[in-house]
Automatic annotation (TrEMBL):
Biological process, per Gene Ontology: methylation
A Pfam family assignment: Methyltransf_11
Keyword annotations: Methyltransferase, S-adenosyl-L-methionine, Transferase
Organism this protein belongs to: Streptomyces tunisiensis
Domain Methyltransferase type stretches: 8-109
Gene3D superfamilies: Vaccinia Virus protein VP39
Lineage, opening ranks: Bacteria, Bacillati, Actinomycetota, Actinomycetes, Kitasatosporales
GO MF, one annotated term: methyltransferase activity
Protein name: Methyltransferase domain-containing protein
Length: 211
């Protein structure tokens, strides 16, 4: 087994990623403020073997409060997935606080809506009015350039990045999985690593490394 990492999952949600990492042998702390999500996560964790449950911890709190709960440099990996999908007050300050939790050489993993491709979903769905509105609407969303600058400014410069949901963003949440799911995933994986496709993905996944 590889090195066991100290992982902080900010905005843990229902704990899907946290549980996967705990099963892989890592020590995982989740921070979440939504009571329903916390309850679902605890229910999922309760069904795991004791050795996995011992590697899990849940802190009830907001994403911006990491400095209240932890000392700087306490984690090898910090996940911040989906936290910046909606408007967040002082997002750069939130990211700076999250980055302070990283030990030297630690990785910050971000998943955000792609502010450079705001019109894509509406356009691909044939919603031309919505696409035009997306072009004109002021946005606080992150794009690659802004994120690259932000990560450099908080001491965790960009190491690598990917596009997520390049071709499948218009699929309904309750859509039946296709028979050729493996092929779909292979195409999405390839597109998410390849220019120019990754630049118009619905989401951006960026990894910054603490100097």
């Amino acid at each position: 087994m590889g090195k066991r990492l100290r992982v902080l999952d900010v905005g843990m949600g229902r704990g899907v990623q946290a549980l996967r990492l705990a099963r892989a042998g890592h020590q995982v702390t989740g921070v979440e403020q939504d009571a329903a999500s916390i309850s679902a996560a605890r229910e999922a964790f309760a069904g795991e073997p004791e050795g996995i449950r011992e590697r899990m911890r849940i802190i009830e709190g907001q994403a911006g409060d990491t400095g209240v709960h932890f000392l700087p440099g306490s984690f090898d990996v910090v996940l911040c997935h989906g936290v910046l999908m909606d408007d967040v007050e002082e997002p750069d300050a939130l990211l700076a606080g999250v980055a302070r939790m990283l030990a030297p050489g630690g990785m910050l993993s971000l998943l955000v809506r792609n502010g450079d491709a705001a019109a894509m979903r509406a356009g691909l769905s044939g919603d031309w009015a919505g696409a035009l509105a997306a072009f004109c609407a002021p946005t606080t969303s992150y794009g690659l350039k802004r994120l690259t600058s932000t990560l450099a400014g908080i001491g965790a410069p960009l190491h690598t990045w990917y596009g997520v949901r390049v071709f499948t963003d218009t699929a309904a949440d309750d859509a039946v999985l296709p028979d050729d799911l493996d092929a779909v995933l292979a195409v999405e994986d390839r597109a998410g690593r390849t220019d120019p496709y990754r630049g118009v993905a619905a989401l951006l996944h960026l990894c910054g490394v603490r100097g």
